Amino acid sequence: MRPLLLCAALGTGGSVQTTSAQTIRPAPIPPVTSPGQVQPVAPGTRPAPVLATLRLAPAVPGVQKVEVLSNGFVKAAHALILLPAREATAPRALTLATQSVLGAFRADPALIEVDVSVYRKEKYQGFGGPLPLLTLSVPRARQPTFQAALQAGNYERVWIQSGAATPEPELTPLQELERLPVFFGTQAELLFQRLTQATSQTRGGVRGGLLFKGTPTRRQVALTVDDVPHPLYFPLVLDALQRAGARATFFVIGRNAQAYPYFVQDMVRGGHEVANHTFHHVRLPKLSDAQITAELKRTNELLTRLSGQPVRYFRPPGGQYSARVLKIAEGLGLTTVFWTDDPGDFQNPGVETVEARFARSLRPGGIILLHDNAPDGLAALPDLLKVARERGYTIDTAGALTR
């Protein structure tokens, strides 16, 4: 007899909600293609705002756009370069990336950082698709010296894809949002999850390898940011946190960390916590044990190598998990972390809506969910941090909630 497959959304208040699409039905774990998802760009309830752009003079060949964004205090820029196959070499990519950095700083000397991503034109499928050929990051303080460091081969904020491009599986843009944790499993497994969550909501702390909430007796909340790092948004998120003296847990997509490794090191220098969000941002319950293990283990190993620290926390993309996912995560030394406060920044509801939802849900032991690459979340972040401080909350990492 085949096992029952149960899909249910676990509410953050200890209740369990089900929909007509989330019913008990006899089914094996469905077959899937190789893991791999394009990171979404805020599908949302309204279109994402159009970002400002810079015009480089002289123009740099291959530059598609140079986008500029502010966190309310400072601005950063990101240049996208697409190279045809005949020009897609590391030396050519580095030359054009360098010219783009210099041109962006000339166009707007107030920028705190310029980042560049160079892709093979024929392979480009947007951010989160096949990896870039080269990435480069130049903070304003490094502008006078980065060219000499590049020539000497000791500039640490450049990444070049080694060897031939690795074949990628067929990728489909992911449109699902992290709304509520969703559990896949049998009735007995679901009942156990309900009990675990209800206990966590009352008492807080890690239970059964999961963290739904911190202790309700301390005026302390965890700030968590998913889908990190994005080369335009992430430097601005770090800047906003530094100004507020706040620390966060960053749930990192492995393939993003691979292409922008220097951002992981920036996290550590800022006192933040580096956590696992799978390698390809893929939904895990439909994968085999071997695929789940590979998604988590590969990310753990990469983040540990880049940060010099063990990875202790994990969040499943979309909040979708199962008993198999939990068992594999625990076997790799990972605690699975969910959230209590989702202001919906990835839906583009408007900055005021994000702020109002956050303020309404702020509670001791809470876990706040924001996303990298979400304009409304970035714009709201300074005010979110200010509101929490004014109400007497300490803003810290998920790990701090467990201590």
Task: Indicate the CATH class of the largest domain.
Answer: Alpha Beta
Strand order of the largest sheet: 4-5-6-7-8-9
Give the beta-strand count. Answer: 20
The tally of helices reads 11
CATH architecture of the largest domain: Alpha-Beta Barrel
Q: Helical residue percent?
A: 25-40%
CATH topology of the largest domain: TIM Barrel
Average residue-wise pLDDT: 88
- Give start-end ranges of low-pLDDT stretches: 1-6, 11-42, 170-175
Shape: globular
Q: Kindly report the name of the CATH homologous superfamily of the largest domain.
A: Glycoside hydrolase/deacetylase
- Cα separation of the termini: 44 Å
Q: What does the radius of gyration come to?
A: 21 Å
Largest sheet geometry? 6 strands, mixed
Q: What is the beta-strand fraction?
A: 15-25%
What does this entry look like structurally?
Helix content is 32%, strand content 22%. With 403 residues, the protein is an alpha/beta fold. The protein folds into two domains: 52-160, Diaminopimelate Epimerase, Chain A, domain 1; 184-401, TIM Barrel, CATH 3.20.20.370. The strands form four sheets. Strands 4-5-6-7-8-9 form a six-stranded mixed β-sheet, covered by helices on one side. Strands 1, 2, 3, 10 and 17 form a five-stranded mixed β-sheet that branches. α4 links the parallel β13 and β14. α4 packs parallel to α10 (375-390), α7 (289-307) runs parallel beside α8 and α9 runs parallel beside α10. The chain is globular. Residues 1-6, 11-42 and 170-175 have low confidence and may be disordered. GO terms for molecular function: hydrolase activity.
